[in-house]
Amino acid sequence: MNSKRLTVMIGEREALPVRAIPYATDWNSFTPDMLAWYLGEDDERFSDDVMPLMPLRAYRMEDGQPAPIEPSAWAGVADALKNTDDESRIGHISCLPPSVFVWLDDFRRVWRERCKREFVVPFEQVPGFKQQWREKFGEEFPDETTDGERIPADVGDELSMSPTLLDGATTQILMEGFETYSDLEKGVGAGGTATNSRTPARIDAIVDTARQLGYDPMSVPYGGKAAIERECLANMISEPHRFTADTFKATWQAARDAKRIDVENAEIYRGQ
Questions:
Q1: DSSP-derived secondary structure letter, 123
Q2: Amino acid 176: pLDDT
Q3: Where does 73-130 show beta strands of DSSP type E?
């Protein structure tokens, strides 16, 4: 990680963590909600006369290579942001998945196009606004409102990359998963398997997904593990699971150690 910038070098290209984007843009246009909609290619939220959906894809590292995240995966993130009770900025940031990034040069093109246009950030999407409204007026913010914070064009197209205005705890959350391009959390459980507070939810998700695919969790057929992984990575990158290729691998092992899941004919493969 570059100590002076909210970026990391991946190969020969500079990458910007998705969680850092709101701070890099000074919370101008690209709030966490807007990011989830944009990366999810929600054309109901964006249009040519507001802000066009220029191509922008997010990635995560899998087997040492950048792997694109399909737009459909961001629907779950958008739902998590909509339903979170934490209205603080960092609460909204934490709903975005760790270890996910965009290429900085790609995002610069999107940002420069945005800076040419006036844009409106709906008030209800500004973290903390609803709480401030309740405290000031003693009532809930009216969801039917269409008013918002009008952001003018020509705001300047420079991104703010310096973390000097952020405290250490916030910076750690923004850069989670980029210390070694892996978001495997530290900690060792029974059998030497990496575990953390999300492990039980992840195990349940793997077992439930196996059943949804028609598998016996204790006798997953050949190719079934890969199918379960694809489902988890496609649909569960947000809270409470935050699946990545690395965390899926660790959770599968933890689930197997707990005798919650296994492959068909496991005793043959293991020479038992």
A1: G
A2: 87
A3: 101-103, 119-122
118 half-sphere exposure, CB direction, 13 A CA radius: 4
Residues 2-25: tens digit of each pLDDT: 445 688 888 778 899 999 999 888
Cβ–Cβ under 8 Å, residues 207 and 261? yes
- Cα(first)–Cα(last) distance of the chain, in Å? 45
Is there a contact between 179 and 94 (Cβ–Cβ < 8 Å)?
no
pLDDT above 50 for 195: no
Look up tokens 């945005």; give the residue: 114
Angle made by CA atoms 226, 42, 130, in degrees to the nearest 5: 110
Measured distance CA(144)–CA(161) in Å, rounded: 35
**pTM beyond 0.85:** no
Run of H or E including 148:
strand 148-151
Residue whose entry in the numeric block shows the structure tokens 């349940």:
204
β-bridge partners, 10:
13
- What does the alpha-carbon distance between residue 202 and residue 248 come to, in Å, rounded to a whole number? 8
Look at 186 and 252; give whichever has higher pLDDT: 252
Beta strand 13-17 with 8-10 is: antiparallel
The more confidently predicted of residues 269 and 202 is 202
Q: What angle do CA 67, 166, 155 make, to 5 degrees?
A: 80
Q: What is the pLDDT of residue 181?
A: 44
Going from the C-alpha of 196 to that of each of 68, 182, 254, the distances in angstroms are 26, 15, 11
pLDDT digits (tens, 9 = 90+) for 109-118: 888 877 766 5
